[in-house]
Structure formats: structure tokens, C-alpha cells
Specification:
The longest helix has 18 residues. It is built from three helices and six strands, in the order ααββαββββ. It is an alpha+beta fold. A hairpin with a 7-residue loop joins strand 1 and strand 2. It has a single domain, classed as Nuclear Transport Factor 2, Chain: A, CATH 3.10.450. The chain has a six-stranded mixed β-sheet with strand order 2-1-6-5-4-3, covered by helices on one side. This is YybH family protein.
Length: about 150
């Protein structure tokens, strides 16, 4: 079954829902087979859906093993689009919770840019870039920055 994302904002709605549900297939349904990703976590870059599937599966498996859920909130979203191409840039806050109690454990905010193309009537992410500001004194990512 193919999911159609006829509006660009449906891609973000799907992203947040799939992360919360830890649904790998739903999450990946918004990505192009030839996706190119620059990620903050461990991998400099990932090319192709198979590599992205491995990373997402590992992330969601760890969340399930820890009995955690993650809520995603998009801030300061800017979208530009034409008939065939779109891009989104925004800040994304990920907040981890204990699954049973909904007790907040931690949060972080990343900067994201998504590049999308329209294929068979559906918007698909072809490029994703996440980043963090770097503390100039320590050289470490600033995970608690807020937009």
C-alpha cells in the first residue's frame, strides 16, 4: 500500500506520528528510494533508503527496548514549493518520555532542512540535513538550544 502525501505539510505530520508510534514503514513511506541524508547521529551521511532503514530501525528498536516514546514538535517552519520541488527548513524538538508514565526524560532541538520532490502525485523527501549549533569553547553540539 502506497501512502500519498499530496500536501507538503503532510510529510511533517507523518514524520511526527511515525516517530511516536515507532513505525518504521510509516516513517520511511515519506522518503524517496534515493534519499541522501546528513544526520547528526553517528553517520556523516546516508545514501539510499536501505541505509536509512537500518538507522531508523536501530533508533526505534532502542526506544522500544528502553520503553520510551518520542514526541516531535516542529517550530518556525518555512516551506517553499513549486509543482515539482519543495523545501522545508525548521527547528525540530524531540522529547523523550517513559512510555507508561509519560514522564518527560529529556529533549533536544535540531535544525532540519528537507528537500522534497513530487513523484506520482506524492511529496517524498529526497534530502534531509539535520544539524546542531556548536559551542565554540567546547566544540560540542548544543542540544539544549531553542529556536
Amino acid at each position: 500500500m502506497t501512502t500519498l502525501y499530496q500536501e507538503v505539510d503532510q510529510v511533517l505530520t507523518n514524520y511526527a506520528a511515525a516517530v511516536y508510534e515507532q513505525d518504521v514503514e510509516q516513517f520511511l513511506s515519506a522518503y524517496h528510494d534515493d534519499v541522501h541524508i546528513y544526520d547528526c547521529w553517528g553517520n556523516w551521511e546516508i545514501k539510499g533508503l536501505a541505509g536509512w532503514r537500518d538507522s531508523v530501525t536501530a533508533w526505534f528498536t532502542q526506544l522500544r527496548d528502553d520503553q520510551h516514546v518520542v514526541k516531535v514538535h516542529f517550530h518556525s517552519v518555512t516551506t517553499e514549493e513549486n509543482d515539482h520541488l519543495a523545501y522545508i527548513y525548521c527547528a525540530v524538538t524531540f522529547t523523550g518520555y517513559e512510555k507508561e508514565s509519560e514522564k518527560a526524560l529529556r529533549h533536544m532541538t535540531n535544525r532540519f532542512t528537507f528537500g522534497l520532490t513530487k513523484k506520482d502525485g506524492s511529496w517524498l523527501i529526497t534530502h534531509e540535513h539535520s544539524s546542531l549549533p556548536i559551542d565554540p569553547e567546547t566544540g560540542k553540539g548544543m542540544f539544549d538550544s531553542k529556536p
